[in-house]
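User: Structure please.
Assistant: Input sequence and predicted structure:
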Amino acid sequence: MFSRLRNDFPILDTRVGESSLSYLDSGATSQKPQCVIDTFTEYYSQRNAAVHRGAHSLAVMATDAFEAGREAVADLVGGAPEQVVWTKNATEALNVVALGIDRASHGFGGEAAQRFGLGPADSIVVTEMEHHANLVPWQQLAQSTGAQLRWLPVTDAGELDLSDLESIVDETTKVFAFTHVSNVLGTINPVDTLVTRARQVGALVVLDACQSVPHMPVNFADLDVDFAAFSAHKALGPTGLGTLWGKTDLLNSLPPVLTGGSMITTVTMEDSAFMDAPQRFEAGTQPVAEVAAFTTAVNYLAEVGLEKIFDHERELARVLLDGIAKIPGITVLGAAENRIGTVAFDVDGVHAHDVGQYLDSQGVAVRVGHHCAQPLHRRFGVTATTRASTYLYNNTEDCEQFLAALAEVRPFFGVQ
């Protein structure tokens, strides 16, 4: 089944020199099936118009396509369409929450927003494995409000160390933000345990789901998180589009940080009143073509089946890990059993960028660097790693091509 799916992705026919392309960088961005590319083109050629702003036929078709995307995403991740907010990426979605809390902490949003207020007596908790997008906004919020920033550490196995969970997440904690799946380690975190602790102390839960939604079944409502964010481009969709999911009452109470047209009910020269979610967070012209294309991507994932995708990637992860273990001089970061098909590693004596360039010369595309997770790399004593990450269009041949090239890296650079 998954070998057949490769035919849906035209870019996978690319040749790199004399080698076929083995694309193992889906953790950074996924490739797009032809149906998603076609939808993007079709929207601009047949339905392009401003949404929610016209009564003519094109405007109606454009608006229908725009709102159909919310329904598709709600079906994918649980909840209702009005809980789905469009942003330009997951980073913006997380910042919308952090900056909204910041505004509430400084008196904006009225009585309804007071529930979000933070001060010096409060704490924000993250983890040591966060992507910078789910760390830097909370650092900034802590600095703005005086709240204390704390974090759960990571074990040598690449899992969260929960031994001090109750003292780190305590009665002062107002926000608990963590990744569902590490973009470096591939580790799947125990969301139920973390949410349970947050509920015990009354903390808001913010979930970074960028590396989970594309790769496994996820239901935000069942997970009982308060806010969640993920990107379209990692889930077969286009760039320039992200999703903020939130519980309805929280979204309607959170002060917006982007203001202007399309998100207001009444405007006078002195003041303005804002719409309920999701429109209150969607000021200005929206990425309608991207939403239409992402709808096709979401439907594609649903048709394939995320449970099947998850099982497929776990099999590929085992091929990668077993193969790497046979190559001398390579250290894999983390060893979690509960994981997706993402593997980051250090090659003894060879810088990650050199590793990546050699693999590229052999047709293998991987990610190199700190993967926007400097604290996590520092935890493991390295400044950069090479990361291979799989998706539904990969197969064992991709993994074998990668492993054959990886085995040649140290000899190529003369490292004994």
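The CA atoms of residues 210 and 230 lie 4 Å apart.
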